[in-house]
Amino acid sequence: MNMNIPLRRTDGVKTAILASRFESIARKMQNTLFRTARSGILNTAHDFSCVILTADCRLLAAAESLPSHTLTGPDIMCRYVMKYHPDLKKGDCFLHNSPYEGNSHAADHCLIVPVIDDGGVLRFFVLAKAHQADCGNSRPSTYLGDVADVYEEGALIFSAAKIQSDYEDNQDLIRMCRARIRVSDQWWGDYLATLGAVRIGEREILDLGKTFGWGELEDYAESWFDYSERKMADAVSKLPSGKRVVTTAHDPFPGIPDGIPVKAVVEVDSAAAMIRVDLTDNPDCQPCGLNLTEGTSMSAAMVAIFNSLIDHTVPVNAGSFRRLDIRIRDNCCVGIPKHPASCSVATTNLADRVANPVQRALAEIAPGFGMAETGPIMPPGMGVISGKDPRHEGEPFVNQIHIGVTGGAGTPVTDGFLSIIHVGNAGMCHLDCIEVDELHHPVFVATRRLIPDTEGAGTFRGAPSMLAEFGPVAGCDMKVLYTADGTITPALGARGGTEGARTRALKRELDGSLTELPACHGAALVPGETVVSYSSGGGGYGSPLERAPERVLHDLKEGWISAARAADVYGLVTTGRAADDTLAVDPEATVARRAALSASQ
């Protein structure tokens, strides 16, 4: 098989050592940001990423970063830094968040530092991307789905703006952010944390260059890319060749009453060891905030591919990317946006509607590979809360919470990742600790629990839905802004698995009654009122009648499914009682019941 992959003479031990060193530098950057950030979206939910790129802007190391942030995008942004600032100098740092020039969305502030050696030569880039609690939008949320364009969105847009020269801040830009961002002290703390991350990355790489020599590091990078490509080629060649056209749709939304259809044409060419995804046959940019960016369009398809491979030792970098051909087009809602289209929600909703069909298509092409669909987001349980904190003399607060989201999809070998949150972050973001949220903000969380019988049933089931109910404390009026998908179109199963439960949002009024809320909404709450959030369940993989009976029994004992669902959907027959812990599988009766259910389907 001729894959045209270079075969260089390399020192495998040294390559492995340097790969570990670069990954450790990316992790040091991440730890710095995580431990020093001010906002809960960073220091609790972990919504940030840190990467290292080569001097020609190829992704080299990303450690445990969010795929939607990193697979494609950092490379584009670094090229714009070079385009607008061809004379890079040591001590430079650039603030970039333009969705039209590679970034994910305006809420993700990126700090980019060129690593310049003592001779003034550009050697690498380091980049830290941090989701902001507030980015100057027209309303206190970084996710505005119901806006017609970027002007109505209102965010400050920075296009490779030089925020530091010779390690000194550009106070003009600092004043702009402080004047526009609602929680300016919080933003300033997050800026310093992000700056610390990129400066530590710069320092560590400069030390590494002095230790090994810049030529050695350049040789390593090329060898690592070639090795990664070979690993990816080997993984893809194990798949059967095939092609599928898979469609889905985002739910109706303000500005798009019919929703947004999405088509993905997925092809595996095992002989050439290539996977191709064509997203060009999709609608133009829409008059809402859901449009994807070049980075999030590409990354959405790519994360689905990496999710679908059984060999998870394939390095995620520019080398393995050579085996992927993702096709997008200009002015497309899942392509390259045209100004002034809004991309406020470009990391989540519509991005998931790209990733999910791709991983489902791969499941159809290659039995034992691919995944079912992960649950759509963003219910109120991961909305943006804002108001004035009565505990701190009415000080304004704005932050995104991650109180209640699940959504993991069934795979060929595992049940759904309970707290994945959504496809694009790959589980890298964390669910909030309730007590920490209640300490940080004037919010009371009444309940958080899983909902029985909401999983996508399968040989390996999807994650069940999560209920979260919360509201403001006494003396506080609170706004909860969210942009939910999946209220109509659920997460579908794969290879005989069933769909997960739908997203839902309600408001509990002062008299205790419940009012259904729209999918995209800003819920205004007074003390005594709460918002009730149901996250979507994940799709199942494979027939539920082939699920190991012991797994069904486990879910039954845990209360994740009811006895009726265990019997009617999974064909489980039990003996004994749960009350005295004698509940057990009746193997022969289960086989007979499953045969009868299969015959009736």
What does this structure look like?
- The protein has 601 residues and is of the alpha+beta class.
- The protein is 30% helix and 21% strand.
- It has helices at 12-36, 40-43, 67-70, 74-84, 150-153, 171-180, 184-212, 214-237, 294-308, 349-365, 434-440, 549-558, 563-568, 587-600; strands at residues 48-54, 59-61, 93-96, 108-116, 122-131, 161-165, 168-169, 242-250, 260-269, 274-278, 324-327, 384-389, 395-400, 443-450, 466-472, 478-483, 504-508, 514-516, 520-525, 530-534, 574-575, 584-585.
- A seven-stranded antiparallel sheet has the order 2-1-5-4-3-6-7, sandwiched between helices.
- The mean pLDDT is 95.
Give the SSE layout.
Blueprint: H1 12-36, H2 40-43, E1 48-54, E2 59-61, H3 67-70, H4 74-84, E3 93-96, E4 108-116, E5 122-131, H5 150-153, E6 161-165, E7 168-169, H6 171-180, H7 184-212, H8 214-237, E8 242-250, E9 260-269, E10 274-278, H9 294-308, E11 324-327, H10 349-365, E12 384-389, E13 395-400, H11 434-440, E14 443-450, E15 466-472, E16 478-483, E17 504-508, E18 514-516, E19 520-525, E20 530-534, H12 549-558, H13 563-568, E21 574-575, E22 584-585, H14 587-600
Parallel strand pairs: 10-11
Antiparallel strand pairs: 1-2, 1-5, 3-4, 3-6, 4-5, 6-7, 8-9, 9-10, 12-13, 12-16, 14-15, 15-20, 16-19, 17-18, 17-20, 21-22
